[in-house]
Amino acid sequence: xxxxxxxxxxxxxxxxxxxxxxxxxxxxxxxxxxxxxxxxxxxxxxxxxxxxxxxxxxxxxxxxxxxxxxxxxxxxxxxxxxxxxxxxxxxxxxxxxxxxxxxxxxxxxxxxxxxxxxxxxxxxxxxxxxxxxxxxxxxxxxxxxxxxxxxxxxxxxxxxxxxxxxxxxxxxxxxxxxxxxxxxxxxxxxxxxxxxxxxxxxxxxxxxxxxxxxxxxxxxxxxxxxxxxxxxxxxxxxxxxxxxxxxxxxxxxxxxxxxx
Length: 260
Known about the structure:
Elements: H1 3-24, E1 41-45, E2 59-60, E3 65-71, E4 101-106, E5 119-126, E6 132-134, E7 137-138, E8 164-165, E9 170-171, E10 183-184, E11 189-193, E12 209-214, H2 217-220, E13 228-233, E14 242-248, E15 254-256
Antiparallel strand pairs: 1-3, 2-3, 4-11, 4-13, 5-6, 5-10, 5-12, 7-11, 8-9, 12-15, 13-14
């Protein structure tokens, strides 16, 4: 074999050995991606896949057992969900309640005589504008005892006052009582409203006042004042509750409306 041929075979052998060495150390097949102790690194022994926390460069412990490590990537944190917008409060499109009924109650403790209790000539609703409307009808729930009562007809208190003369401050023209033009409540009560075909729909509002024309010293300059209570319905129905507005017959017969 010539020197030239020897060199050729020597070079071929070196090239083959280099190729084999490169094939055996392909980094793409290297199982060691990290070492124990690195963050998120999980290592196991190759012989039994048991976990180990001592694996460096593919070897574990003093005995040098083969081991493999794998880097476990942490999942990316989920994006925080956008907070749901607060629900808008429901819109109430209902019209405000209308108040239409006034109740006048007799507060006389022991009513007696031919005209027992508070003697009512008329009931007026004075609006905040100064306009006054008078009771146009009374409800069937009205309760007036006619026993021993010469003036128990509730119809007599409807409309404008006719026993009381607001212009002169007198009653019955200065004469004797006429039982046909006023109503004695006799420990009872009357419930009225102010609406009618002629008057239209008259409702009661804060700022209004209720004027009870009670036949007594305040309105007439004679006879006794008799106590009464004024309440307003808190609903658009006679079956609703009533809210007390105040009392009269104690020097004043006009009761303001508030708190509705």
